[in-house]
Amino acid sequence: MSVICAFLQRARALGERLLVGVSSDALNIAKKGRAPVYHQDDRMAIIAGLACVDGVFLEESLEQKAEYLRGYSADILVMGDDWAGKFDSFAYICEVVYFPRTPSVSTTGIIEVIRGLL
Known about the structure:
It is built from five helices and four strands.
């Protein structure tokens, strides 16, 4: 969790407020082919409880990203660099920044290691 906190703290330092889009369970299944470990409501509560986060919203579709950015008057979109280049098309709405990820702590990576042990 500390890596997630560090990522969000870095994002928060770029602006006056930090709003975090939490992927819905359905979007996670569509992106990763599996249900998330925690239900979307729990993930939203966890993220909302972080001191650096000013608000959260449920992100139900990558196709609606432009609407989310406009609707929340985003100045900066911060994504992990595993998405590098994929959101550059939104640069007409706001600045797009990609932060390096730490793959050793990804939930997907942890699940794959556990599966390998079973």
